[in-house]
Amino acid sequence: MDINKRKKYQIVTRLFYSIVFFLTCYFIVIRPLRVFVNKNYIAPLYLSFDQNQSTSVSSTDRRINILLEGYSSPRGFGIPFGGYFWLPFCLFIAARQRIASKILILYHILLGIIPPYLAFLFINKINWAGVGLRVNETLFQGVFLISLFVGLKTIFEIFKKENN
Predict the structure, then answer these.
(1) Whole-angstrom Cα distance, residue 114 to residue 155?
(2) Strand order across the 75-78 sheet
(3) What is the mean predicted confidence (pLDDT) over 9-20?
(4) What angle (nearest 5°) sits at the alpha carbon of residue 3, between those of residues 5 and 158?
(5) pLDDT at 1
(6) Residues in contact with 132: Cβ distance below 8 Å, sequence separation at least 6, in sequence order
(7) Can you tell me the mean pLDDT for 100-117?
(8) How far apart are CA 61 and CA 53, in angstroms?
(9) Where are the alpha helices (DSSP H) in the chain?
(10) How many whole angstroms separate alpha carbon 59 and alpha carbon 66?
C-alpha cells in the first residue's frame, strides 16, 4: 500500500495499538523464547565453564552472572531483546521512526554477541573483560533511557502537530 494512501491514525491510537501488539507478542512469544534459549543453551554452556575454572557462574531466567575470586560483585550479561528493547521499539514504531528502530535492533543484536564473548574472556581470567561487562551494563541502561526519551519526545511532537 502506498504510504500516501494509507489511512493516517492519530498518534495516540498508533501508540496504543503498538504497545498492545508488542506487549502481547513479548509475553506470548519473545519472553518464553528468551527463557528457553537461556536455560537450554546459554546457561549450560557457561555452567560448564564453571566446572573447569575457579569461578562461580549462576543464571536466572534471562541473565548470566559470573563471580571470580577476588571480586566482590558478579559481572554478567542479560539476554537481549527484553523489556528495555520493546518499550522504546513500540514508541519508534508508533512514531514511524524507521532509522531509530533499526539502530535499536542492531544494538540488541550486538548485545547478543559482544557481552557473551566478554563473559567467556572474563571466566578465563582476562580482567579487562570484567570492566567491559560493567561498562556494558551502564551503556545498556543509558541506551534505554536515551531511546525512551527520543521516542517520547517524538510522540509528543507528533501529538502537538495533530492537535494544532
Answers:
(1) 32
(2) 55-60, 63-68, 75-78
(3) 92
(4) 105
(5) 46
(6) 118
(7) 96
(8) 23
(9) 11-25, 31-37, 43-52, 83-94, 98-111, 114-123, 127-162
(10) 9
Q: At what angle do helices 127-162 and 11-25 cross, to 10 degrees?
A: 140
**Virtual torsion, Cα 100, 102, 108, 114, nearest 10 deg:** -110
Give strand pairing partners of 66: 57, 75
28-33: long-range contacts at Cβ-Cβ below 8 A with a sequence spacing of 24 or more? 30/81, 30/86, 31/62, 31/82
Q: From CA 78, how far away is CA 34, in angstroms rounded?
A: 10
Nearest to 116 by CA among 69, 59, 60, 64: 64
DSSP state of 8: -
List the domain boundaries for the chain: 11-159
Nearest CA-CA partner of 83 in 23, 10, 7? 23
Q: Which of 33-37, 71-75, 119-123 has the lowest mean pLDDT?
A: 71-75
DSSP assignment string, 99-140: HHHHHHHHHHHHHTTHHHHHHHHHHTT-HHHHHHHHHHHHHH
Specify the pTM.
0.86
pLDDT of the residue at 55: 73
